[in-house]
Amino acid sequence: ETAHGSILLLRMAGAIGMALLFRFLALYPASPRLWGAATFAALLTLATFPLTGHAAALPTREVLAMTVDGLHLFGVATWIGGLFHLRLLLGPLSKDPETIATAVRRFSPFALASASLLIATGLINALQYIGSLTALLGTPYGLTLTAKLLLLIPLLTFGAINFLILRPALQHTK
Questions:
Q1: Are 160 and 148 in contact (CB under 8 A)?
Q2: 12 falls in which pLDDT band (50, 70, 90)?
Q3: Whole-model pTM?
Q4: Rounded (10°) angle between helices 32-48 and 63-93
Q5: Is the sign of the CA dihedral 94, 91, 34, 24 positive or negative?
Q6: In terms of C-beta density within 10 A (0-12 exposed, 13-18 middle, 19 or more buried), how is residue 31 classed?
Q7: Left if phi > 0, otherwise alpha if psi is -120 to 50, otherwise beta: which for 131?
Q8: Which phi and psi angles does 5 have, rounded to 5°?
């Protein structure tokens, strides 16, 4: 029985709890208690990742580093997860311009905040774990980060196009 094992058990319990709660939410979507419980289970599950990730491997196990790592994961989960759910929502409703305009208008500030959090915490993490341009391009960790940054560029480009061009254009569909 190790701390790592206990954290993994907590993560599994949170994931099972989320699955059950989201199943009940499909049956009772207007229940604020179920939404609150599902949100708590999701945050609990997410909070376990920094406890076993990069920040936890630091000799001092800095709380600040684990917090930044957790916020980074939260930014990823909310932005990419939000895009996924936006697409699920708009799939069957894509014929209604008003629904699309409303969904994009509501999601865009949320996406901007999530992407901004992701970038800010990513920069903090890069400074902490990489430290130099040589390490960015000369270590496996640095090369992995470089690949992630290259994947992020088109996502940010599409996000900027959405926020600066499409969203304002959709506002005129009212």
A1: no
A2: very high
A3: 0.79
A4: 130
A5: positive
A6: middle
A7: left
A8: -65, -40
